[in-house]
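Hey, quick one: can you model this chain's 3D structure?
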Amino acid sequence: MGQPPRATGIPAFRTEQVGSYWDRQTQVDVVGLNWSQQTVLLGEARWTSRPLGVQALDELRAKASAVLPAPDWHVHYALFSRSGFTEQLTVQANSENVCLVGLEDIVEDA
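Sure thing. Here's the predicted structure for all 110 residues.
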């Protein structure tokens, strides 16, 4: 039996629509909407050889206004990384309830 997932900050709402968003200036890899609760999950996936830092979260937050159906929606953030996360991002994510998902949270060794 595998170990339990290490992902943190997983939002507790049901998505009614899932996809991605892009226009000429903005791309968001994961968008999960709950229209009835006016709640959205915005996620960014990075396949780099270095751990993600706080800058990745800042960049995702900067994209939120382009994606939100209205400015009063509640936003959750998620970062997906092949190479994990810096300690600074991990501490910030834990205090702000940001979901961090590493490759080891998704793939289990055979």
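One thing worth noting: The CA atoms of residues 43 and 100 lie 10 Å apart.
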